[in-house]
Design goal:
about 120 residues; mainly beta; about 0% helix; about 55% strand
């Protein structure tokens, strides 16, 4: 399966962005989808995830500001990011976890920069 992420960019503190990630390909039934991020000099961290049944999980640092959603028919996951802070600056990577035990699929990464 291939993941195509989009929606990153430059935004001022307090602003909003919406990331999208579409999965395509065969032979890969998707369970969870979500987003990790990696800032310069820091480890990659889980931002948010959502299962095929709609159960969500958020990092404490984004709880209440970010909302993850999913369109199962389109195999697409979205991340609505509001009240962005400078510390949200990072490369955001989407992932898709297979239903059967296996390796997660990863998108190419999209840069989010929060700066005035």
């Amino acid at each position: 399966v291939q993941l195509q992420a989009s929606g990153g960019g430059l935004v001022q503190p307090g602003g909003s962005l919406r990331l999208s990630c579409a999965a395509s390909g065969r032979g890969f039934s998707i369970d969870a989808m979500g987003w990790y991020r990696q800032a310069p000099g820091k480890q990659r961290e889980l931002v948010a995830s959502i299962t095929s049944g709609g159960r969500t999980n958020y990092a404490d640092s984004v709880e209440g500001r970010f909302t993850i959603s999913r369109d199962n028919a389109k195999n697409t996951v979205y991340l609505q990011m509001n009240s962005l802070k400078r510390e949200d600056t990072a490369v955001y990577y989407c992932f898709a976890r297979p239903v059967d035990p296996g390796t997660d699929a990863w998108g190419q990464g999209t840069q989010v920069t929060v700066s005035s």
